Amino acid sequence: MTFKEQIKQGIPQVLPPKKEYDTAINHAPKRKEILTDEEKQLALRNALRYFDKKHHEELLPEFKEELEKYGRIYMYRFRPDYKMYARPIDEYPGKCEQAKAIMVMIQNNLDYAVAQHPHELITYGGNGAVFSNWAQYLLTMKYLSEMTHKQTLVMYSGHPMGLFPSHKDAPRVVVTNGMMIPNYSKPDDWERFNALGVTQYGQMTAGSYMYIGPQGIVHGTTITVLNGFRKIGKSPKGNLFVTAGLGGMSGAQPKAGTIAGCITVCAEVNPKITQVRLDQGWIDEKMTDLDALVARVREAKEKQEVVSLAYLGNVVDVWEKFAEEEVYIDLGSDQTSLHNPWAGGYYPVGMSFEESNEMMANNPELFKEKVQETLRRHAKAINKHTEKGTYFFDYGNAFLLEASRAGADVMNPNPTLGREFKYPSYVQDIMGPMCFDYGFGPFRWVCTSGKPEDLAKTDAIACKVLEKIMKKSPEEIQQQMADNIRWIKGAQENKLVVGSQARILYADAEGRIKIAAAFNKAIKKGKIGPVVLGRDHHDVSGTDSPYRETSNIYDGSRFTADMAIHNVIGDSFRGATWVSIHNGGGVGWGEVINGGFGMLLDGTKDASRRLKSMLFWDVNNGIARRSWARNEEAVFAIKRAMEAEKKLKVTLPNLVDDALFKKI
Length: 664
What we know:
By secondary structure, this protein is of the alpha/beta class. 42% of the residues lie in helices and 14% in strands. The termini are far apart.
């Protein structure tokens, strides 16, 4: 069968042969056993409902074995034989260009070079899934190949509910992931209901088909590192940034450190992903000995090198060793997947990767104790460095939250609302006031032709647009504009592409709209192929997350999720090609609600109309909420937006004189 025929086939009527478990691939750890005997039977019934009754007798023992061995039913037998990657859009079968674009993005999320655990359909973060099983993938791709521009595919936490009649301006796909009743949104609830096959953790851009590999956060991480050094009044050159994690999102850190121009030490316990990042050129050197690491860092400091060093081992050992050897750390953070601390997101110190995975599955309570003990040690070591002047920030991975739950010394001795922890979130001190409140966030695009030359052309178009905008930009956002122009000019030489021909660029509403409009004109003239627009949910308005995206909201509303819901609803009727809303994300299940979108630019008038309507809302609804919280930069930004668009009328806050409270 051809590739197109396999896509159109969906779930095969004749069972394919069983597949061998490929040990060369990076696999998800075994999930802990949490289902009762009755629930296990229910999980098997749920899995078998995708298949004709005549196959149940053969598949039942196989699925039972998967559930017992891996803690989930992945249906490995149905994993496609064709290579998984984002093909040029015209290689996909279909009746609708928008549906083909979504197929491009789904396959990119599952590309072996992109996905963290591709055979388990997990893109990043240890549990960020595109689908729960391979039957869902096959059925979804089949529906997309059949879809017309008057239908919408409804995705229910990985399950393709079906095609429903709609209209050309409706989203082609509506995605939800993990939208639990609030009282059923604890970590063990995810374990249970995911094992049952009825919900999944979509992370931010995994389950919404908008992940573009670690490049997706390289730009934001670069801005964070640059502004972190600016905050402490130092040049990055010759100075040290220490962090942890080389997986999906966290893999961006060493590359970002190199682009920013510092020395980066990034620890990682997983040998496979460490080697992948070395092979991809995202790290310069891999080290396994702490004494050798200390010597190498000292050499790099002396020579003022720009270099990224991966330490294969636990980051706690690095913090402790550097304290013992008096290696000064200028910036410190952590980007392990602590939103998922008990299932592979964070590993105990003093244990091998293999020992940890075994304990995680077979003795989860002891594993949890070891993780919390490690968090206490981790925090203690960090405190030793910060007492000497190190600037440490929480990278929005729930490090401080989980450390506090473990009883670590991370609480502010003089807490105020929103500043309960000893250390700030990077959103509180850097990304919030410097970027999000002004409307700058991670706008991204993918060239569906698959041609590197198309990506180069879009880079040039975006740079030209930004340079033109910057000439008339107010002083308040000149630094943001300059950083973005510097970024896009160096994008090609930094070799950021992993998987699809994609790019990310921090831009505000004006920049996003004008760049998108310029792309659409270029597509119409035949200069480039169709382009998919999107963004990370980690943005101005898509996500309500009290310990990350909205951690710099101090009016008491940071635990509300109205903004994310408003965002996805508004995107839906303003022209997005697909929309998504998730429970969970970078800081954990039950800790955040986040929404995203994808939009196909095809050179048409319809695309031009949609991009202007949707992108304006997608940014400014978040700025409006931030300005109501009395964020000074957001008040400035929303006033600019109202001046530019007279139909925009936003309620502005009246500030209260602090002196009044001294009289009562």
